[in-house]
Amino acid sequence: MVKDLSKQNGTALAMTLMALALMVILVLTMNKLGASYAKSTSNSSDYDLAQNYAKSAMLAAEATVLTFDNNAGLQNPVGGGTLVARRYAILSQTSGTYNVESSGATCNMSAGGVRQGWCYQSAGVGSDFAQNTNFFPWTLTAANLTAPCNSYTASSGNLPILDDKTNRLGITFNTNDSSLCVQPRYIIEPISLNYVGGGANIIQGNGATLVIDTLQSARVYRITVRAFGRNGDTRVTLQEYVAIYTAAGVNASSNIIPLSMRWLRPE
User: Fold this and answer.
1) Full residue range of the structural domain in which residue 148 is found
2) Is residue 233 assigned to a domain?
3) Closest CA to 120 of 84, 147, 145, 148
4) CB atoms < 10 A from the CB of 200, how many?
5) What is the Cα Rg of the chain in Å?
6) What's the structural domain count of the chain?
7) Are 134 and 150 in contact (CB under 8 A)?
8) Is residue 35 domain-resident?
9) Prediction pTM value
């Protein structure tokens, strides 16, 4: 019987082409996976960079709060009226401050403001400013702002207040890292002007007693930090509540106690 060589050759050619096609698909898939992995690694590295700078900015913000509270003499400010009213008077005289929740636009942006980045609750001079329940202050938008860098996807003109390129609304933390899209920034909000925290005695595992002193008439501030990576779409937001109190006497140095910290809406 005579074999049909042309048919066999055609079958072999088809199988060879199929094998080549599978190899091409495999190579393309591997390249795509490799590119995706490289991109994922790069994004992760960029996020870690932004996160580290956010933590550093938070430490700087804590120092800013403590220095301001000490220099302003908020433990026992001079003047008439109640203690809270006197403390509020100092804050209300801080030039150019606005309540970011109600105005949704500025945070001491006015020309000549001596406390850029400081925002206080203008309503309720009572025991605290707890009416300010919005814990996403950076999401409040303001017109005529400029995007921080070209890789930032949102268009200029109406941005979150902490994303403005020139940071007219916040306090800048300079990292000296020119590779960043823009330098980290933060805002500070007094939340309570007369916070009293309870004390306690805690028995530790080794039997020793840990004494937690009662916080007498502390001031509570909320700090919101916004940090960027090299890519404008890499953003980390930290928020912390801190208490400032003077342990012994008017002339003693004040202390700062972090009450809570959280990462807000990872991006």
Assistant:
1) 47-263
2) yes
3) 84
4) 10
5) 28
6) 1
7) no
8) no
9) 0.74
More confident residue, 101 or 215: 215
Mean pLDDT computed over 199-210: 75
pLDDT in tens, 137-171: 777 777 778 889 988 988 777 888 888 888 877 89
pLDDT above 50: residue 102: yes
Paired tokens of 91? 């804050």
pLDDT digits (tens, 9 = 90+) for 6-54: 555 566 666 777 777 777 777 676 667 655 544 555 588 999 999 999 9
Q: Which residue has 């120092």 as its token pair?
A: 63
